[in-house]
Write a structure and sequence with these properties.
The chain is an all-alpha fold. It contains 4 helices and no strands. Residues about 30-40 have low confidence and may be disordered. The termini are far apart.
């Protein structure tokens, strides 16, 4: 990404943050932003419930243990798959898909 592109993205994010602070719902325009923002619709996404967050955290630990990878690496893989900054940003409607993704990470013979 070019310097001008980064400056444009930063400016756009500042404008969006100001809108949120003023109480206006926003939709992220991904035309000049990285793919991470392409699937985000901030105004309509509900976060994970506390019990869903707890079970996802436990599943991350389990997958890390069973595959020999670090918990950080497992979290990064999950985040990258769903194009989110971290697993806490996962939307409630993506929880089932996240569990399926995590279960698929464990080799069949190791369950």
């Amino acid at each position: 990404m070019t310097k001008a592109g980064l400056q444009l993205m930063i400016s756009s994010l500042k404008d969006r943050c100001k809108q949120v602070m003023d109480g206006h719902p926003i939709l992220i325009d991904s035309s000049h932003m990285p793919c991470v923002a392409a699937n985000l619709n901030v105004a309509s996404r509900s976060p994970l419930a506390a019990d869903q967050q707890t079970s996802l955290t436990a599943l991350v630990s389990y997958v890390a243990h069973m595959t020999g990878r670090s918990e950080y690496r497992v979290e990064r893989d999950l985040s990258d798959y769903f194009h989110i900054p971290n697993p806490k940003c996962l939307a409630r409607d993506q929880y089932d898909a996240a569990v399926r993704f995590m279960v698929e990470q464990v080799p069949a013979g190791r369950c």
